[in-house]
Amino acid sequence: MPFEFENLGMGIVLIKPKVFPDKRxxxxxxxxxxxxxxxEIPNIVQTNMSFSFKGVVRxxxxxxxxxxxxKLVFVPKGKxxxxxxxxxxxxxxxxxxxxxxxxxxxxxxxxxxxGFAHGFQALEDSIVVYFLTHNEYSKSDERCVNYSYxxxxxxxxxxxxxxxxxxxxxxxxxxx
Length: 176
Ligand SMILES: Cc1cn([C@H]2C[C@H](O)[C@@H](COP(=O)(O)OP(=O)(O)O[C@H]3O[C@@H](C)C(=O)[C@@H](O)[C@H]3O)O2)c(=O)[nH]c1=O
Description:
By secondary structure, the protein is mainly beta. It has one domain (3-171): Sandwich (Jelly Rolls), CATH 2.60.120. It contains 2 helices and 13 strands, in the order ββββαβββββββββα. The strands form 3 sheets. It has a 6-stranded antiparallel sheet with strand order 1-2-10-7-12-5, with no helix packed on it. A 5-stranded antiparallel sheet has the order 9-8-11-6-13, with no helix packed on it. Dtdp-4-keto-L-rhamnose binds next to β5, β6 and β11. Its EC number is 5.1.3.13. GO terms for molecular function: dTDP-4-dehydrorhamnose 3,5-epimerase activity; racemase and epimerase activity.
């Protein structure tokens, strides 16, 4: 199988793709329906890309039920600290978050299931992030938790006006 699936707990999966290097560079598969289905990762219906400068924090974002989104996160260029915050009220890890560095050398792909808020910080300039989601974007169902909930490594943040106004966890809409 061209992927190794490592369970990080809480339903979060770190996917290590097989890399095929040759004299031109390298090739890898990012998503494959059959293999991912076997790993209990649902099919993808939308793919997004963002570009960010060093220090940028995007997050912590999620969509509420029934438009909740599981996300595959992949970094084709640069490095990020990726964060998934558990918002499932009935979960023993509610309010806890997982941090993983994703970069263009480890080629890791992170599966964040529905029920989590997601965010990241760009650890260097001009990074590119791909998100593959299992439910489509729905503006009216978007929610966020304040980014300051996470201890980010770079303290000079660049964030959007929208993200600077996200509520603290205590006031956020959460999942059952
Ligand atoms: C997320 C999204 C945004 N947009 C639009 C809305 C807005 O005008 C513009 C920028 O949106 P945002 O400021 O929300 O972009 P951004 O802050 O990069 O949002 C993303 O952050 C990371 C952490 C995630 O987890 C993603 O799911 C997504 O929420 O793009 C879409 O058209 N489709 C989409 O799927």
